[in-house]
Amino acid sequence: MSGGGAAVVRTIIVDDQEPFLAAAGAVVDRTPGFEVVGRATDGHAALALVDELSPDLVVMDVRMPGLDGIGAAQEMARRPHAPIVILVSSHARADLPAELERTGATYLHKEELLPARLTEVWERHGRTLGA
Questions:
Q1: pTM
Q2: Per-residue buried b or exposed e for 87-121, using 16+ beta carbons within 10 Å of the residue's own CB
Q3: pLDDT tens readout for residues 60-83
Q4: Which of 36, 38, 110, 131 shows a CA-CA span of 20 to 30 A to 14?
Q5: What sections of the protein cross the membrane (predicted)?
Q6: Has residue 92 been placed in a domain?
């Protein structure tokens, strides 16, 4: 489904905190053309889901135990059908590691994760909604 249009933007949510998994899932569910196809609580589980489900989009926390969002995003970028990645955090961008810039991911503060922003990021990557 990557490239061009997609009938549905298949999305994985990744965060080690259940409240944010639920909140991010609700945002995706409220975004026309997007659906949650999987959830993970760390970077290793996220990579396994990417390999299993080939999602179009991954919304992932920067800071998690084990493999963090930055490391997982770098690994996802090496996949043959790499998803678009949005890295999120409750911390200001200036307080996050510089490596975030080298992931190719879009950064959003968790409070900025809204339906309009999901659509904006999707379209900024040259993708369109609908088939």
A1: 0.88
A2: bbbeeeeeebeeebeebebbbbebeebeeeebbeb
A3: 999 899 999 999 999 999 998 899
A4: 131
A5: none
A6: yes
Examine residue 103 and state whether it is found in any structural domain, yes or no. Answer: yes
In-domain check, residue 66: yes
Cβ contact 28:60 at 8 Å:
no
Q: Are strands 57-61 and 34-40 parallel, antiparallel or unpaired?
A: unpaired
Specify the pLDDT at position 131. 47
How many other C-beta atoms lie within 10 A of the C-beta of residue 58? 27
What digits encode the pLDDT tens for the residues 31-57? 999 999 999 999 999 999 999 999 999
Residue type, 103: T
Strand partners, 29: none
Please return the burial class of 5, using the count of CB atoms within 10 Å of its CB with bins 0-12, 13-18 and 19+. exposed
